[in-house]
Task: structure prediction
Amino acid sequence: MNRPTPSPRPPRHFNLVARVLHWSMALAILAMLFVGVGMVASLSLRPVLVDLHRPLGIAILLLVIVRLINRLRHPPPPLPADLPRAHAFAARASHWLLYTLMFAMPLVGWSMLSAGGYPVTIFKGFALLPIAPHHATIYAVLRSAHTWLALLLFATVLMHLAAALFHAWVRRDGVFASMARGALALPPPAAADADLESVEDKPIAPAPTNQRQQ
Amino acid sequence: MPDIDPAAIPSTTDRRWPGLLAIALIVASAALAFAWTAGWLTPGRLTPQRFTDAIEAANGQVWQGFRRAHAKGVCVAGYFEGNGQGQALSSARVFAPVRTPFVGRLSIGGGSPYGLDNQARVRSMALQLDSDDGQQWRMAMNSFPFFGVSSVQAFHEQTLANAPDPATGKPDPARQAAFAAAHPEFARFAAWAKSAPWPTSWANTTFNGVNTFRFVNRAGEVHDVRWSMQPRAAFAAMTPEQRAAADGDFLGEDLGARLAQGPLRWDMLVTVAQPGDAVADPSQSWPEDRRRVNVGSVVIESATPQATGACRDINYDPLVLPAGVQGSDDPILAARSAVYSVSFNRREHEIAGGKAAAATGRAAPQEATP
Result:
């Protein structure tokens, strides 16, 4: 994917689009979580933060659509073959959860504002159409869901961060590098790997059953 | 590798520790920062939730499903009719010579939905205007001409000072006196509350925006403004005897009687600040000679009970604004927005949870009580 290779060897790195989306969305989502939890707890910053929260949320929704399409077209590198099954399961499950929440949070927020009768103002003079009826019960359910899903997302992000750093600093198995950067220089045939690439880039045996969720 | 002393090679376990420790520190720091941002680590920090708790405490009880402040009111409907004069100040569509429909609410101050109209010093008008360009403007105005305090902290202290003493069921006069002494700006409000006449109707009450907003016109020029809704109905004040004899629900009865005769009108007067005017302090009036522009009329055509009316599930957040209108640095404005949101969330949850029979018209309302 990132280097020309004659063999059908699976990629060792996420493609550039995936990496750019991953790191920009990582920043955006972390910012969103802090903006969200901060704006509901502030008597002074709420207006500024609300004005930031809504367009950023919709931006994340648009980005995650692009990201999912890219991911379906460019499968991520496989997990290391020697990863314990429980780890591999946790990796798959947490990535499904992250994707679900990246879609759910903006949609719940949008429909929650709709159900609360609020204009879904993205920027001054532009509001999205409502996607839920103005109704007290629907609003109350979605408003609570937005909070609890946000806490679940933050917890999942922390686990994801811990796991990524575990791969980078403890297992040193190339998983972190697969998202941190692209492949280095063009590899001369096979044996050169150890010289040109860091230990993190050591070849990973294909393990199709361990397809990693981005 | 026979020449290497095996003891010199760190064991796998030893090499894991620095990494694990660093990971734990990073994750814990992130979690702590999040908890701090949420206010969970600082119980003393004044948040919208704690402010709303103070209002509930001052109310003496929680009336489920009702607004935490200005709980008693009626929904009204009508339109705003711009006269074109406001367009020089703001590009908001409502100022064009068009009719913009609104869902509004007339109410009295206080946390009880059964408060006595003849004892409520403060009355209020809220409007949600939906203009034909798809934008919305929410306003929440009061009958007092200026706010009682200039800071959010003082607003909170005022709320606490008005909380009933558990021993007497009434606010503690010593605490109220201490509050007034600590906030000299409150004296003006107290004087207004004591001496201002009591209009006989919602229809002849002036409603003031109190907080400063910024109007932006098509040329991008910005003006700091405040506005008032000045009634067309003839002013008449209640005598103390009339007030004492009035029914606790007289405002709603009077409104119904007047609307049966025809719509009720207010002129929207926009006051434009001069440099140096107190734009961030709602407790300070601006000088009387400031330019005032009549920009159009608020016309109320009908009223419905709030339990079943369209205004019930609306949060009249004064910072829901169309293009051409912006908030200001007035700290009370941001605080109102934040506290209204918490009040709205709580009452909508109570309604959703089936705990708000009276607020939703599924139980007979109580009689007005002191």
